[in-house]
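Weekly modeling sync, notes
Attendees: S.R. (lead), two postdocs, one rotation student

Agenda item 3: backlog of single-chain predictions. S.R. asked that every request posted to the team notebook include the full sequence so nobody has to chase files. The rotation student volunteered to paste the first one in as an example of the format we agreed on. Action items at the bottom.

Example entry:
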Amino acid sequence: MRLDQIARLQELSVGLADVVINEADPSTWPGAGKPAAELTQEERGNRYWSKKNAAASMTLLVKVMNITSTLSKDKDPSLHDQEKELDEEVAQAERQAMALLERASKGANVH
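Predicted structure, as returned to the notebook:
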């Protein structure tokens, strides 16, 4: 892959991160603030779709980040040492985001 393509993918990941942040916000999902028992059938279906869409966007973001990280390190091995700490922070943030999505999903189904 060319360096300009890697740079474009890195820019894309910034935009995808904004999308993930917006889509993963439970306050924007249909029926936000309502107990699950009070959701209409349409709200439940739309809410489920919103959660699935947020998870798919998160997966896409993680894959783009993994690709660009791997390609960047292949082009310049010194980047591995310089970015190791950042990669660990990103991985931790990804795990936390997935845990939040899972808790939000379970919490929505509890009520």
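Discussion: group reviewed the output briefly. The chain has a mean pLDDT of 85.
Action items: rotation student to repeat for the remaining queue; S.R. to check formatting next week.
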